[in-house]
Amino acid sequence: MFSDLLVQTRVVTRQIEMLDALFKHATEGIVVVKKSGTIVMVNPKAKELFGYSELDLIGKQIETLIPPRFAKNHAQHRNQYMEAPRARGMGHATDLYAKRSDGSEFPVEVSLSPFQTSDGEFVVSFIIDITERKNQEDQIRKANLEIQKLNTDLEERVEQRTSELAEAVKKIQESQEEVVRALQKEKELNNMKSQFVNIASHEFRTPLATILSSASLIGRYNTTEDEEKRQKHVARIKSAVTNLTEILNDFLSIGKLEEGHIHSIPVLVDMEKFCAGLVEQVQGTCKDGQQIHFKHSGISEVWLDKQLLKNILFNLLSNGIKYSPTDKPIFVNVLAQTDTVAIEVCDQGIGIPVEDQSNIFDRFFRADNAGTVQGTGLGLNIVRSYVELMGGAISFISELGKGTTFYVSLPNKEAGPENPKLATAATSRN
């Protein structure tokens, strides 16, 4: 009987020693409080976390370890908890903070476990300092926000370009249907579809591939020393987006023309000033060494549709720039008279082969010697449509290897009382 008691005593002693070791060497802070909230025990880790000695804490209320702004409510929560105590974790779904002896705060996770002895009801709190985890979470959150922002920006750009492309394709499809009803020639329609698919797939693939590759590479340049590389790829993206915009504008213009949404609305234009400003604007797109020479003669003010005139000149000048060598000039001559305005755009570029000259204004047509120069084959078709909308005519002469000159003749005619709607629109548009 005595030996059994001795064995039990030794077992209990070992258990007490183990519990004492666990209490003292635990990596979590342990604070034991009475039902009233009075601190009765703290382990070394808790003293380390809070910066107190054991004597400073024993007998104090648990609210001593809680920031003042939470202390009052904590006492109420503690009383409610003690009415139905249970094991529970805290700080996983909400942010909890503890207060050190110097008044500083730090984020914590707390687990509560109630127990009862002959001395009454107690709660043991296991406290973990999660400052490092919070810092890492903040860094991850900031990085995720930045990634989300970049993804959102890219998605918006892609969505915008996709929407514009879908709109352009819609317009083209509608224009193709008009061609079917007007011409009733299935062979010509199929040929037009084939040309469009080939040109669209080629013209869109190149700039989109440039945007994708440059956007991917930008993400790899994280240091200040890589700024030049980043700017280089930003410039490539801007250039590709500009190219896409020009292509989409061509497609949209064709759609609007087919639908009859474009009208010629003459307004009073200072021809010399208008053309000089446009030439100056286009000069910025010239190759190194290229110059545009502008000459105006005749009267200053004429009645023309400014937007259509701008598109005509811009398209003809852009072609002259694209198909001319770097050192060859481009000439723009304007003769404005009381009844007509004559425009010449002359380049010294590659010229148009004789066998292609009869088709040069056809939609999607590109001369055999165009090579790798980007283009949709829509520009001159749109120019001719705009000239005809303005009641004018366009022609050209070209010699292979020596250049091309386009001649545009437009009537100088005011929007009169016979069409008051156009006259009113012209006033508001000007």
Automatic annotation (TrEMBL):
Residues 128-192 form a coiled coil. PANTHER family: SENSOR HISTIDINE KINASE RCSC, TWO-COMPONENT HISTIDINE KINASE. Its EC number is 2.7.13.3. It catalyses: ATP + protein L-histidine = ADP + protein N-phospho-L-histidine. Residues 92-142 form the PAC domain. It comes from Dyadobacter luticola. One of its GO terms (molecular function) is phosphorelay sensor kinase activity. SMART domains: HATPase_c, HisKA, PAS. It holds the Pfam family HisKA. The keyword Kinase applies. PROSITE patterns: HIS_KIN, PAC, PAS. InterPro entries: HATPase_C_sf, HATPase_dom, His_kinase_dom, HisK_dim/P_dom, HisK_dim/P_sf, PAS, PAS-assoc_C, PAS-like_dom_sf. Keywords: Coiled coil, Kinase, Phosphoprotein, Transferase, Two-component regulatory system. It is an enzyme of class 2 (transferase). Residues 199-414 form the Histidine kinase domain. It comes from the Bacteria. This is histidine kinase. Residues 15-68 form the PAS domain.
